[in-house]
Amino acid sequence: MARLPKRVLIVDDSPTIRGLIRAVLRPDPRLEVVGDAADPYEARELIKALQPDVLTLDVEMPRMDGLAFLEKLMRLRPLPVVMVSSETQKGSRAALEALALGAVECIGKPVSGRFAAAFGDLADLLVAAAGARLRQPGPRRQVSPATGFDWNGRLVLIGSSTGGVDALETLLAGYPENCPPTLITQHMPESFLASFAKRLAGRIAPRMALAREGEPLVQGMVALAPGGETHLELAPGLPPRCRLRRGEKVGGYRPSVDVLFRSAVPVAERTVAVLLTGMGRDGAAGMLALRQGGARCLAQDEDSSVVFGMPRAALEIGAAERAVALPEMSAAILDLCRAPDRRLA
């Protein structure tokens, strides 16, 4: 039996953007654009009348901004939402706030001259979002940093995508100030990643920043791939260092989780690799190479994943040794990086 296409409602005050999104989605048989709205008040009535499966929602709109509408929507009638935001400093902060409020993903709005290439991944993203596991509204469980941690010398590499902002905030909240050195590749536009690093820096115990070329990996640091034109890699040698390598997209992504994971194969026995929520398969093959080299490898479980794509791919090919629920992930990582006499029973 053929599956019915997912019903999409476009909410944006720009007729140009609404028309562009329609044009991008029209050829895809998995999706049906059932309507569009120029502001949240129109959107509210169309949601009632059309019963969409997923929304695209502009951040900046007249009469009511997208964040205010998103907060009301997630509280009163939760729906999967993909936010569309300008990649300015203000837009990037708004994008992260939208993800914290429950949006499944946030993508950058195209700038003049780049309309032809805009929204290339939007169809896949909307299909994934329509089937995403929405976070329940309300205050999230507070996680306190671990105490009494003695490091055994292992490095931690983490890959994440759709749903990763919330997942990373939850995981890193359990990190102590003297955490194992940790590198993270999260699929996001460059400006969003810079804002995300700043947001995390004020919320977690370890030192948090964008990765810098040649920076040594030391205990108590967490570094996020800056994206843009570069992939984040682990440079060989002692001490291990960050390397930002310019290159084309790998598997459709830059930064790529597979690139990060494969760069650590020479030190696999001293590595813990983790795949969190996200659509697609980025990171699975790289994790398998790491595990075959002696790394310890974990994947987020299905129940706590917004989109169980990347973790599922890793588990299916035997790259991840086990699935771990998000609330227990930081403890699982720290146990693998703990000196033998301080490991959990």
TrEMBL record:
Top-level lineage group: Bacteria
Active site: S161, H187, D282
InterPro entries reported for this sequence: CheB-like (IPR008248), CheB_C (IPR035909), CheY-like_superfamily (IPR011006), Sig_transdc_resp-reg_Me-estase (IPR000673), Sig_transdc_resp-reg_receiver (IPR001789)
Enzyme class name: hydrolase
The keyword Hydrolase belongs to this UniProt entry's keyword annotation: yes
Modification after translation, per record: Phosphorylated by CheA. Phosphorylation of the N-terminal regulatory domain activates the methylesterase activity.
Span of domain Response regulatory: 7-124
Signal sequence interval, chain numbering: none
Catalytic activity: L-glutaminyl-[protein] + H2O = L-glutamyl-[protein] + NH4(+); [protein]-L-glutamate 5-O-methyl ester + H2O = L-glutamyl-[protein] + methanol + H(+)
Protein role: Involved in chemotaxis. Part of a chemotaxis signal transduction system that modulates chemotaxis in response to various stimuli. Catalyzes the demethylation of specific methylglutamate residues introduced into the chemoreceptors (methyl-accepting chemotaxis proteins or MCP) by CheR. Also mediates the irreversible deamidation of specific glutamine residues to glutamic acid.
Entry comment, domain topic: Contains a C-terminal catalytic domain, and an N-terminal region which modulates catalytic activity.
Listed name of the protein: Protein-glutamate methylesterase/protein-glutamine glutaminase
Species: Paenirhodobacter ferrireducens
Gene: cheB
